[in-house]
Amino acid sequence: MSRPSAIEVVNVSKKFGDYTALDHVDFKILQNEFFTLLGPSGCGKTTLLRMIAGFETPSAGTLLLKGKAIAQMPAHKRRVNTVFQNYALFPHMTLSQNIAFGLENLGWDKARIRERVGRMLEMVHMEDFAARKPDQLSGGQRQRIALARALASEPEVLLLDEPLSALDLKLRQAMRNELRALQRDTGITFVFVTHDQEEALDMSDRIAVMGHGRVQQIGTPIEIYEDPKTRFVADFIGDTNFLEGEVIASDGSTATIRTALGTDVTTTCENVSGPGPATLSIRPEKIGVGEQAEGLILTSTVLSRNYLGGFTHYTVRVGEIDLRLSRRNAQSHQDAFDIGDAVRIGFRDSNARILGQ
Amino acid sequence: MSKAFRFWGLAPAWALMILTLIVPILIVAGVSVAERGAYGGFDWAFDLTSYRQILFTEGWTDALEFDPKYLWIIARTMLYALTTTVICVALALPVSYFIAQQSARVKIILIYLVTLPFWVSMIVRVYAWLIILGNDGILERVYRLFGGADVSGFLFTSGAMITGMVYSYIPLMVLPVYASVEKIDPALIEASHDLYGSRWVTLRRVILPLTAPGLMAGSILVFVPCLGTVLEPMLLGGGKQLMMGTLIQTQFGGARNWPFGAAIAMVLLAFVVLVLLINARRMPRQSEIGL
Amino acid sequence: MTRYPMTRHHDIRSYPGLGPLSLVFFLWLYLPIVVVVIYSFNDNRLVSVWGGFSGKWYLVALENKALMSALEISLKVAVISTTCATLIALLAAMVLTRAPNLKFRRVSETMVNLPLLLPEIVLAVAVLILFSQLGLTNGLVKLVLAHTAFCTPFAFLPIRARLQGMSLDFEEAARDLYAPPLTAFRRVTLPMILPGVFAGAMTAFVMSMDDFITSNLLNSGGATTLPVYIFSLIRQGTTPELNAISTLLILASLILATLVLILNARAMRRG
Predict the structure, then answer these.
(1) pLDDT (tens digit, 9 = 90+) per residue, B113-131?
(2) B10, B242, B286: best mutation site toward chain C, by most C Cβ within 10 Å?
(3) Domain assignment of residue C36, yes or no
């Protein structure tokens, strides 16, 4: 990756009293990328975002913005802007005044501010609302103004703190596309915080999955979903089956695991050094059932069935092990399996992943 | 927020309170054990006469005789303050429940009506009762109109004083009690009825306990100023029935016995601090004003 | 709180007799005020004997020089103490609600609210002795100092409530948009808490105007405030002129109280 970095998080830790919010976090956010911090609540993602914005200072480590250390720089001097979770539009100012606020503080002249405010309102399709106050807007409109306000000064980085969580479902979907397009058009680095994995997978160039105050894995959405490196990531992103087993052979690029299913699974891996216990992850949709079964074939008994329209989820038992699997309903009135039926299931062992601890 | 602002933001408040409250109260404590000056005021000499004077008088023979005169004043103050508080509770509970049942709009209006008299100058409010209760006043006339005997003397009674005190401080009881009642989730009352609780069981076992914090806060807000009240005993009590407030005032006015006035002030302060400490103990989280 | 209009009439919370009792309560609450107002228009010199309608006592009151000079002193003291108290309260409230990990937060709050906790007569005696020890003789200065002290918590409480009710997001957004601390305060915090500041200032003003106990005890050096003057009139006996003065004061209180109510209602709607 030769692109220069917009933000470097260098070995940052943050403690609140005895509680460790961030534990030696270290990574880079590249220029012009849509970067997402994804994790459950309390994982430290918001703390990290607030640190980049300048509302928190690290207990240890430092932050670089385009190579310059900013950890101690006050928030109002950083060319970084935030879209707040509840937008924080100033209720006593009109929308124009809200957008102009940052530019005035930067000392722009009046004509230039007026021109830019007009352009920003245009960008978010809110030209007719310039003189309104925030409490006269719908949720989606507030969101747009918050974006316009934050982007008006063309910051180096735009921070977005769960900006879609206050919107209803339909609007959220539309705003995802709008945000993505806005990022492409402006070329500004977006740092997006969310706990919603679907949002993260849909919008991001790269995702940092955070858990327990640490970065668990960084990668593209496909890497994160298809090649989870840790149990935490595999569990948090999507649904999966964990299989405990024993390494019986490894040659550096592949390893063979003897599992409790009674079969051996051979798959690629980087993090197996020798014999010992190991955990495999296999996604439910990667396990075929009935005529969709292929690869390693096993016989199982159906324990439960959940019909969800496009898919039917089954839990089946193989020996002592329960597996969840998802069957695509490709044909209408496709035969369903009943509880207690004996069914054939199968998966390709290359679809299984060996997890680090 | 910068360190400097943290300091300079609080410094004026601290300076003001130390200068006009803490230091003066310490001086009062000092004066209460000082000697009475020959021409009023006081001289700095350690002397416990003032405290002794609360319990004893010097008889003809210079021997100390027990004299409950001032103890009666202290006891009367306590009794009247307590009576006032109890009456305020008895009035505030039903009124608060009534207000809480109204629509949002009516609620605002009624609470405004409760607060409004509190904004009217204290002296005007007490004066108004003087007109009503006074000799040949409105109450006497109405009484006579309905064929009552030719009575007089509503004024200058303990009843008049307590009426005035209740009237002065009742908003301080209604507001916190109402705030507590208003906060009660209607689902809790429905749950009580659902679980076979009658209205009265619900009142006793659900509503009253949930109103307790407001009652406690209101009682403090009424009881404490009643202990030091001055206007009601002076105007409605006619100065015949002294309370601690008026006793103190007299010592700094006509009687000019500053050390004795200071001693009574310290006793009053001790009672108040005691009440506040007990309250802070009872509900450390709910005391709104700190301490 | 959700309320279903359909169930209003058989609300399971309604207890018999609450309505009539509350009605009597409100009548009792307003009886004295109404009596004073009505009798201020009594033509008769005797307060409680109705002698026909007349507005002459208002003229008598307005021509009373001593009354007017007492009013002037009261206004002077109230304006100066309210300004000082509001500024002191605003500063303290900013620090107490906005500084993280503040040491002495609890004791500082108690300090600011101390005048509310202690009986006024004790505080009055205390400042009286202090001023006599300091040899302070200027009546106006004495009154301003004492009034500023006991007005501060009345200004403080609504300001603090407003600051606590205001999300920190707005100030962070201001800083995020390049506003230095003072600009953020002037352009975002202050406009948003203004209703609280007004409510606090107005409460402080009324408390200062109404004060009797302290002003009476400090009454010297030609600084007789309005309540102290009214007290001296009452001592001379009830007169229709007193009723007229009282009615004017009631009117003033009514206007101020309504203003504060409107401010609070607006603040609530916005919050």
Answers:
(1) 999 998 999 999 999 998 8
(2) B10
(3) yes
What is residue C219's predicted lDDT score, i.e. its pLDDT? 83
Ranges of each domain in chain B: 51-289
Cα distance from C124 to chain B (closest Cα, Å)?
Answer: 9
Facing residue for A88 by CB, picked from C169, C178, C270: C169
- Give pLDDT, residue C270: 55
Cβ–Cβ of C177/A92 closer than 8 Å?
Answer: no
Contact at CB, B121 and C130, closer than 8 angstroms: no
Within a 13 Å sphere around the CA of A346, how many CA atoms are in the beta-carbon half? 10
In a domain, C237, yes or no: yes
Size of interface A-C (CB pairs under 8 A): 67
Backbone angles phi, psi at A140, to 5 degrees: -65, -40
Residues of C in contact with A80 (CB under 8 A): 176
Q: Are residues C199 and C125 in the same domain?
A: yes
Q: Same domain for C134 and C260?
A: yes
Domain shared by C50 and C127, yes or no? no
Domain range A239-355, its CATH number among 2.40.50.140, 2.40.30.60, 2.40.50.100, 3.40.50.11810: 2.40.50.100
Higher-confidence residue of A330 and A272: namely A330
Q: Which residues of B touch C238 (CB under 8 A)?
A: 127, 130-131, 134
What is this structure's pTM? Answer: 0.85
ipTM score of complex: 0.88
Q: Which residue of C has its CA nearest to B251?
A: C125
Which of C40, C57, C74 delimits the end of a domain? C57
The neighbours of chain A, by the rule of 3 or more Cβ pairs under 8 Å, are C
From the CA of C158, how many Å to the nearest CA of chain B? 12
Integer Rg of chain C from CA: 23
CATH of domain B51-289: 1.10.3720.10
C7: which DSSP letter? G
Specify the residue for token string 């009286």.
Answer: C128
Let me know whether C183 and C248 are in one domain: yes
The two three-digit tokens of residue B123, written as one number: 């002296």
* Domain residue limits, chain A: 5-231, 239-355
Q: Which residues of A302-319 are buried (b: 16+ CB within 10 A; e: fewer)?
A: beebeeeeeebbbbbebe
Q: Can you tell me which residue has the tokens 């009240």?
A: B229
Average pLDDT, chain B: 87
- Residue B257 sits at φ, ψ, to 5 deg, of -115, 80
Same domain for C115 and C211, yes or no, is yes
Chains that touch C (3 or more CB pairs under 8 A): A, B
Q: Please give the Cα distance from A167 to A171 (Å, whole number).
A: 6
Superfamily of domain A5-231: P-loop containing nucleotide triphosphate hydrolases (3.40.50.300)
- The domain tally of chain C equals 2
Q: From CA A319, how far away is CA A339, in angstroms rounded?
A: 16
Q: Does B75 touch chain C (CB under 8 A)?
A: no
pLDDT 10s digits, C94-141? 999 998 888 889 999 999 999 988 899 999 999 999 998 898 888 899
Same domain assignment for residues C111 and C143: yes
CA C89 to chain B, closest CA, distance in angstroms equals 7
Distance of CA B79 to the CA centre of its chain: 11
Residues C29 and C116 in one domain: no
- CA nearest A216: which of A197, A198, A203? A197
Residues C177 and C118 in one domain: yes
Q: How far apart are CA C45 and CA C40, in angstroms?
A: 11
H or E element, residue A139: helix A139-151
Give the residue from C9, C30, C57 where a domain finishes. Answer: C57
CA-based nearest distance C179→chain A, Å: 5
Per the structure, the complete domain to which residue C34 belongs is given by 18-57
Measured CA to CA, the distance from residue C93 to residue C98 in angstroms comes to 8
pLDDT score at A72: 87
Cβ separation of C118 and B269 shorter than 8 Å?
Answer: yes
Rounded CA gap, A300 and A82, in Å? Answer: 52
